Amino acid sequence: MNGLLCYCRQGFEPELAGELSERAARVGIAGYARTERDSSVVMFFSEDAIPLDHALPFSQLIFARQKLRLLAELRGLNPADRIAPMLEALADPAFEKMRFGELVMEHPDSDAGKPFAGLARSLGNALRPALRKAGVLTAKDNPSLPRLHVCLLAGDHALLARSVAADSAPWPLGIPRLRMHADAPSRSALKLEEALLVLLTDEERKKILREGMRAADLGAAPGGWTWVLTRHGLRVQSVDNGPLRQHVLDSGLVEHLRADGFAWQPQHPLDWMVCDMVEQPRRVAERMATWLREGWCRHAIFNLKLPMKKRWQETQLCLDLFAQQAQKPLTVRAKQLYHDREEITVLAMQAGRS
């Protein structure tokens, strides 16, 4: 089976299906997506010999929270014994050399899938020893080996898939579980925390997110993104005509500038600019490109609020517009994060800069 299993935000299945189909076509792969609205799950299949997990790297997918290689689809499972069919599927000669370092039990992050959380846990507790006895799963978790994922779509319907650390998210369902801090001025702080975690590598965070760096937060009120930056020791110019929470100002790292975030520009180049303004996505993309083109910042994180229709098409248009108008080499990464809603988050870094 040459197929992928991907998870996404509920309601964005058409966007992910369109993205997978178009990206596959760009590299010469004919395939088709299969999904159901509000399922949070998209499968993509191809009869081409090129392995899809190599041709469609996870780092380039915007609407996928997780990307797995699909191994088998099991329907009509008997509630009295769901384990035997799974062991039988994994005994297929095509998988005979596969060994897994961890079992990840999952269910779709959807209204229909969440009730299967308890079943997934209890089935996992029974499946792990059976897999170890069969020699499919190592005695102890081994992060150097692929992970085996079992996704329960229903009590009698499961998907078996595999992932490798370099080409997938490390969290079940691709969802980093971040806790809302008591001092955070707003829930939007979680969006920037997740962006810094997901879009930057450990090495990049150490290199380009350092204490003493200078940043601007456009449309900062009430201060959620500013607060996140100050927790990393950055000095922040927070630009908004609205008020910031007092404890954000009391950090001593924040200068509140009452101005229009779309008109304001810094007097000196900054290390970072972040922006979560509610504006038309093309207007945001153009303004963010200006910041990078003019050298007002070296790195940026910004959100693009998507329309209700043609969201994949609008995403492509905005990212192309941004790249064209920035007029310089950039590393650009984009994701619809777990804490995003009708939006995507974009990271742009000047090539070769730290």
Automatic annotation (TrEMBL):
Subcellular location: Cytoplasm
Main EC class the enzyme belongs to: transferase
Residues annotated for S-adenosyl-L-methionine binding in this entry: 188, 221-224, 240, 260, 276
Reactions catalysed, as given in the entry: cytidine(2498) in 23S rRNA + S-adenosyl-L-methionine = 2'-O-methylcytidine(2498) in 23S rRNA + S-adenosyl-L-homocysteine + H(+)
UniProt keywords, alphabetically: Cytoplasm, Methyltransferase, rRNA processing, S-adenosyl-L-methionine, Transferase
Organism in which the protein naturally occurs: Thermomonas beijingensis
Enzyme Commission (EC) number: 2.1.1.186
Domain RlmM ferredoxin-like: 1-68
Subunit structure, as described in the record: Monomer.
Residue ranges constituting the Ribosomal RNA methyltransferase FtsJ domain according to the UniProt record: 186-278
UniProt name for this protein: Ribosomal RNA large subunit methyltransferase M
Domain Ribosomal RNA large subunit methyltransferase M THUMP-like: 81-163
UniProt similarity note: Belongs to the class I-like SAM-binding methyltransferase superfamily. RNA methyltransferase RlmE family. RlmM subfamily.
Catalytic center residues: 305 (proton acceptor)
Gene: rlmM
A GO term for molecular function: methyltransferase activity
Coiled-coil region(s): none
Biological process terms in GO annotation: methylation
Transferase among keywords: yes
Domain of life of the organism encoding this protein: Bacteria
Role noted for this protein: Catalyzes the 2'-O-methylation at nucleotide C2498 in 23S rRNA.
Record carries keyword Transcription: no
